[in-house]
Structure to design on (600 residues):
């Protein structure tokens, strides 16, 4: 799941222009990797790709800070 | 007497030493601590030869150290220059060179980015705020906070001296620096603190990054009245559900941001779950707030007084419009009336005053006005309208470039721009700058940029280019090039390559037709 998310962020949201490789532990929100528009696109992608719904109350830092956080959140949702 | 900006902190530290001056997440700094820490940074800078008139860069995202950095730099007599950490390195390097920045204050979080910056040629000589070894002499915050301040001497700074420089989009293709003195910064702090009646019990939200001029409200106006400023983290600004939790937890009483942030909170549909009864002011500015959202928000937060603030970064703020009732119709709300002792005129294209109620360009005379543009006397001259008064004094007015008219009830209405500047998500963008950047590409002959409104009311930048004869390039390469030169909010969302621009009968580029082509894509 991590690889898929990283691939999407690097290719679709960042146009492969990151100066370093994106890692699962990188802070997506605090390091200026994604802006608020990018975040919304990422959530849309997740909903489509993983056939799930992210309700507004789940769109919080604890679930979206890093690629790892997103994976954990999605895994826990599946249970 | 508070005569220069650092006096704000010294004064509040004397009156309310233990009160929180700034908060960020679980961290906080009291006025007394801030007073000491800023003196420590100032002493360090002074020891390294920094003196009045020098510029020191602040390379940080939203964090507690921003407050220590800006007041520490000003305490050393120097001017602070906010550097946006999210822009491409080329743009940061341009600013460092343009402004002659030799010293930069940062945080450990930026270590990777600073390393990258230092691989390029720049005027930098010293990095403050990073503990790891760097290519230049560097000092950690622990080093700074170990300095003994018993011999701290106040610099000989007067209110006329340079306090800070904020860079904004420039139509010639490179950013321009807006210079503010202690006097103009302090005049803004006093006027806004009075208008919004800030007091020591207020908890003021700072949503804007340091390089955005409305941050002066949280960093100057709030501490002036010994209120606590809550610096909202970058992460919170991106996730409205977290943001609204924070608003409740911090019991915010004054909110100031661009409309977009408020619209995102509204659209999260979570408002009813949180207790925001402490909120007494909701101030917005930077761009037009669509009435349909504003109305919805006013219905949800009846406890708060809503206020539209207006003013280009060159003069901070100049008008305000307090909404006493929920707007009934969707026509844009006024920018309101001038504050303080400001004077204004509405001029036609020949610099003559228009008839009352007619449209024209707003020029403003105000104590909150900038000193000028950094290193650009010509641009400064062109931005000023002067008039000899009856008592033979010279009155200088700032030409806002904004088209306005005076309403029957004495309020000013904003009607657009006289040039090609637009606002996207509150950021000021010169479309000429993006065209100039694209035209600088080695394969591009001509470039054209326009903005179109999407169905949700948001603006989007589109571009068309003509390549030099016989040359080819992939669109993705051009987009990538833009990413390496422009901040993310100024990126065209689409670029098309044309064989040639359509021309009008007289041979001029037919912008209307290109715009039509672009918007139907």
């Amino acid at each position: 799941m991590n690889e898929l998310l990283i691939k999407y962020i690097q290719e679709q949201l960042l146009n492969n222009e990151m100066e370093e490789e994106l890692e699962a532990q990188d802070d997506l929100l605090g390091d200026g990797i994604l802006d608020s528009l990018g975040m919304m696109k990422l959530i849309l992608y997740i909903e489509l790709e993983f056939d799930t719904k992210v309700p507004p109350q789940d769109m919080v830092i604890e679930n979206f800070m890093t690629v790892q956080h997103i994976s954990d959140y999605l895994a826990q949702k599946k249970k | 007497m508070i005569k220069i900006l650092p006096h704000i902190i010294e004064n509040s530290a004397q009156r309310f030493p233990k009160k929180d001056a700034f908060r960020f997440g679980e961290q906080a700094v009291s006025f007394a601590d801030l007073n000491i820490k800023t003196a420590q940074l100032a002493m360090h800078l002074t020891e390294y030869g920094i003196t009045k008139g020098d510029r020191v860069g602040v390379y940080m995202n939203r964090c507690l150290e921003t407050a220590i950095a800006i007041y520490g730099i000003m305490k050393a007599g120097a001017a602070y220059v906010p550097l946006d950490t999210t822009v491409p390195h080329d743009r940061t390097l341009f600013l460092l060179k343009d402004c002659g920045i030799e010293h930069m204050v940062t945080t450990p979080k930026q270590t990777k980015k600073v390393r990258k910056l230092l691989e390029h040629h720049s005027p930098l000589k010293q990095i403050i705020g990073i503990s790891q070894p760097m290519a230049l002499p560097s000092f950690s915050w622990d080093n700074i906070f170990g300095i003994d301040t018993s011999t701290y001497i106040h610099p000989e700074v007067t209110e006329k001296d340079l306090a800070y420089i904020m860079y904004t989009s420039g139509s010639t293709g490179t950013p321009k620096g807006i210079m503010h003195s202690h006097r103009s910064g302090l005049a803004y702090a006093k006027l806004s603190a009075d208008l919004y009646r800030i007091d020591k019990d207020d908890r003021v939200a700072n949503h804007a990054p340091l390089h955005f001029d409305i941050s002066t409200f949280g960093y100057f106006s709030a501490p002036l009245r010994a209120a606590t400023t809550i610096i909202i983290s970058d992460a919170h600004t991106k996730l409205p559900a977290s943001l609204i939790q924070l608003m409740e937890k911090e019991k915010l009483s004054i909110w100031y941001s661009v409309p977009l942030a408020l619209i995102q909170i509204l659209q999260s549909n979570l408002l009813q779950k949180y207790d925001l009864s402490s909120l007494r002011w909701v101030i917005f500015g930077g761009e037009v707030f669509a009435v349909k959202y504003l109305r919805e928000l006013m219905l949800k937060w009846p406890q708060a007084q809503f206020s539209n603030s207006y003013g280009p970064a060159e003069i901070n703020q100049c008008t305000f419009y307090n909404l006493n009732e929920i707007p009934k119709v969707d026509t844009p709300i006024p920018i309101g009336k001038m504050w303080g002792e400001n004077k204004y005129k509405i001029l036609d294209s020949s610099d003559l005053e228009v008839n009352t109620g007619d449209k024209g360009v707003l020029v403003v005379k105000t104590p909150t006005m900038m000193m000028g543009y950094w290193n650009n006397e010509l641009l400064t001259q062109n931005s000023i309208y002067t008039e000899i008064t009856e008592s033979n004094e010279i009155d200088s007015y700032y030409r806002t470039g904004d088209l306005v008219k005076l309403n029957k009830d004495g309020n000013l209405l904003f009607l657009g721009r006289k040039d090609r500047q637009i606002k996207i998500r509150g950021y000021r963008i010169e479309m000429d700058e993006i065209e100039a950047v694209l035209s600088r590409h080695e394969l591009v002959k001509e470039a054209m940029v326009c903005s179109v409104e999407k169905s949700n009311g948001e603006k989007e930048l589109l571009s068309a280019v003509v390549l030099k004869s016989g040359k080819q390039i992939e669109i993705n390469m051009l987009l990538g090039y833009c990413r390496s030169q422009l901040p993310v909010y100024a990126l065209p969302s689409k670029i098309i390559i044309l064989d040639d621009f359509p021309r009008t009968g007289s041979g001029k580029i037919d912008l209307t037709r290109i715009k039509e082509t672009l918007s139907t894509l």
Summary: The mean pLDDT of chain A is 86. Chain A touches chain B at residues 15-17, 19-20, 27, 29-32, 34-37, 39, 56-61, 64-65 (CB under 8 Å). Chain A has four helices and no strands. Residues 2-78 of chain A form a domain with the Non-ribosomal Peptide Synthetase Peptidyl Carrier Protein; Chain A fold (CATH 1.10.1200.10).
